[in-house]
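Weekly structure sync, notes
Attendees: PL, DS, HV (note-taker this week)

Item 1: 4Fe-4S binding domain protein
DS walked through the input record. Source organism listed as Methanobrevibacter smithii DSM 2375. Sequence as pasted into the shared doc:
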Amino acid sequence: MAVKIDSDLCGHIENCPVQGLCVKICEQGALIEEDGDVTIVPEKCDDCDLCIQNCPNQAISKA
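Item 1 (cont.): predicted structure, written out as tokens:
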């Protein structure tokens, strides 16, 4: 089950307290930066939950 990103909570990478850490730590490349936003590539997500555990805004959850 891939993750989902709540764009209202996320607030764009430029406003992220950890500057898009979720994109940086995703070993599968399932989270990418696209026009300053975080976008999920569901077919690459392996359900490791690192992004969920490390999002300071709690903007990432299971779909």
